[in-house]
């Protein structure tokens, strides 16, 4: 089927697309935000920023990006860095497989591409963790190759621009947009064009709200604005609901230290966490479990409830603080003092609601 049939748009709408490049780039040159990865966009810097920006807000990424480049400034150092250091640098960003795939890809680049990211869309796609969007972003921004980089922002802008009611959750619709976007992409500034679309989507053609059409450089060319349907677009069918899991999170503390366990589960593998048990346990069950693990409990205190959303699962957590006088660490566990908590162990943000309780307890003990 022809892409415009999949996208439910007419030929004249598609034929008008080359007209968006000039006003879009003019607007981008004047209004683009100053972002650390836009200065000196080497292939490595573009790659790191694009991976960090997946599923994460720009403001949240800035600090991580700069710290990462200080410790891991190039592909050779990324290929060699200790996994514990890598995970600590990624702590709080979530989706930790992104960090592991970065390292796998760096190792492949060292072995197969002479230590340099390849200037080829197809070769970039062969690297772990690099999909069509990221390959398109690196190829166009760092190497000037005219390929699209179609993310959620671009799907939204183009759906509105063309007045398309095709469901952007469907793979065939995404593929049809990947074929259609290049019609508008100027060969002399492919990377700026891709970034300008993302910028427009992030600052003007906003998600989940009425777009700011009166501030948009594409208003006179926009089918969605002309037909007053922009705020109904894009169409995106609902994902399957997340599985819900109940967890009991227990901060085991003793002697100015907290007990951490290294996760073996595929989700958050290799990161550290407090004692994390399935189900919502009662106080006597918590004491019993710690005793079975070899610990001697002095006091138990209930903490807040919290929840954390992963892509496919939701954790509903009850929190407890258990002060122990004796607890030899079981295999895979370690006692951590305040310095080790900050500098050594990478903890997922799923437990953020409880880290303040650690801080409070450690401060009381140290004081
Ligand atoms: Fe989006 Fe409005 Fe611009 Fe159309 S005119 S691209 S709907 S902001």
Which class do the helix and strand fractions yield?
Answer: alpha+beta
Query: Averaging pLDDT over every residue, what do you get?
Result: 93
Rg is: 25 Å
Shape: elongated
| Strand proportion | 15-25%
Please trace the helix and strand order, writing H or E for each element: HHHHHHHHHHHHHHEEEEHEEEHH
Biggest sheet record: 7 strands, mixed
The first-to-last residue Cα distance is 71 Å
Stretches where pLDDT falls below 50 for ≥5 residues? none
Helix content: 40-55%
Bound molecules: iron/sulfur cluster
Write up what this structure looks like.
It is a single chain. The protein contains 17 helices and seven strands. The protein is of the alpha+beta class and 367 residues long. It is elongated and about 75 Å long. The mean pLDDT is 93. The structure holds iron/sulfur cluster (SF4). Residues 157, 160-161, 204-205, 211-213, 216, 218-219, 222, 224-225, 230 line the site of iron/sulfur cluster.
Mind sketching the topology for me?
Elements: H1 3-6, H2 11-15, H3 21-31, H4 43-53, H5 58-71, H6 75-80, H7 83-90, H8 97-112, H9 121-125, H10 132-143, H11 152-161, H12 171-180, H13 190-203, H14 223-226, E1 243-254, E2 257-262, E3 272-273, E4 275-278, H15 283-292, E5 296-309, E6 313-326, E7 333-336, H16 338-343, H17 352-366
The structure holds iron/sulfur cluster.
């Amino acid at each position: 089927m022809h892409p415009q049939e999949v996208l439910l748009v007419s030929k004249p709408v598609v034929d008008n697309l080359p007209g968006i490049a000039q006003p879009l780039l003019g607007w981008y040159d004047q209004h683009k935000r100053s972002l650390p990865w836009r200065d000196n966009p080497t292939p490595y810097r573009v790659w790191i920023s694009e991976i960090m920006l997946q599923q994460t807000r720009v403001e949240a990424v800035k600090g991580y990006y700069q710290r990462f480049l200080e410790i891991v400034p190039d592909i050779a150092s990324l290929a060699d860095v200790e996994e514990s250091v890598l995970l600590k640098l990624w702590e709080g960003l979530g989706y930790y497989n992104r960090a592991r795939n970065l390292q796998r890809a760096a190792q492949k680049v060292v072995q197969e591409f002479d230590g340099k990211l390849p200037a080829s869309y197809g070769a970039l796609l062969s690297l772990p963790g690099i999909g069509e969007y990221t390959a398109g972003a690196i190829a166009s921004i760092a190497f000037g190759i005219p390929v699209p980089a179609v993310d959620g922002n671009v799907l939204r802008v183009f759906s509105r621009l063309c007045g398309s009611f095709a469901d952007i959750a469907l793979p065939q619709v995404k593929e049809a947009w990947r074929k259609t976007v290049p019609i508008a992409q100027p060969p002399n500034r492919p990377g700026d064009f891709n970034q300008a679309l993302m910028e427009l989507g992030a600052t003007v053609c906003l998600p989940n709200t009425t777009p700011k059409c009166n501030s948009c450089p594409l208003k006179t060319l926009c089918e969605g604005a002309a037909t007053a349907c922009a705020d109904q677009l894009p169409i995106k069918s609902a994902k399957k609901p997340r599985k819900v899991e109940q967890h009991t999170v227990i901060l085991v503390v003793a002697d100015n230290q907290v007990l951490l366990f290294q996760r073996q589960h595929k989700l958050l593998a290799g990161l550290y966490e407090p004692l994390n048990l399935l189900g919502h346990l009662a106080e006597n069950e918590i004491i019993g479990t710690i005793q079975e693990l070899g610990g001697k409990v002095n006091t138990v205190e209930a903490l807040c409830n919290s929840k954390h959303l992963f892509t496919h699962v939701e954790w509903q957590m009850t929190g407890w603080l258990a002060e122990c006088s004796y607890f030899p660490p079981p295999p895979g566990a370690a006692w951590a003092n305040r310095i080790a908590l900050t500098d050594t162990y990478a903890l997922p943000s799923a437990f953020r609601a409880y880290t303040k309780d650690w801080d409070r307890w450690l401060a009381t003990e140290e004081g």
